[in-house]
Amino acid sequence: PCRLVVKATAGARVIGKRGESIRAIRAASGATVKVLQDNLPPALLRRQECIVTASCGEASSLQTALAGILDRVFDRSGLPDAAERDRERPYVVDVVVPEKASGPLVGPGGERIRALIEELGCDLNVVREPLAGVAAQKRVRVLARERDRVELGVWR
User: Fold this and answer.
1) Reported pTM
2) Regarding the domain delimited by 90-155, which CATH topology (the fold level of the hierarchy) does it fall under?
């Protein structure tokens, strides 16, 4: 499955009013999409974060689900201040990966991650500390000025 750590407000946008957004993502992709808000480790709750998961058998379905999720996570239309809505800022999302995958992702001397950063046109940062309260998991922060670059980085 693909697992993303997002702010609680972004998780609420993925769900949508009366579950409309998450149902639409599920219908369009055929994937199983869940927003884990309860029963999270205290550290995530304190930081007002949740975990969004998407899983299915087909890669194309998972990619469609991921695009729908990120559309909602990065939706700025609900911001009350127009200047804040239009302000340019980077797109950032954290992907949850097994801790043992972080070494091969970085590669010897950082070679692999530097090549991915150049290829994908986004910044990738493996957060050194394990994901608080979640055994043997780490965050990989994906950051870019363009939304589609973040989506590509998460997908890879």
Assistant:
1) 0.88
2) Ribosomal Protein S8; Chain: A, domain 1 (3.30.1370)
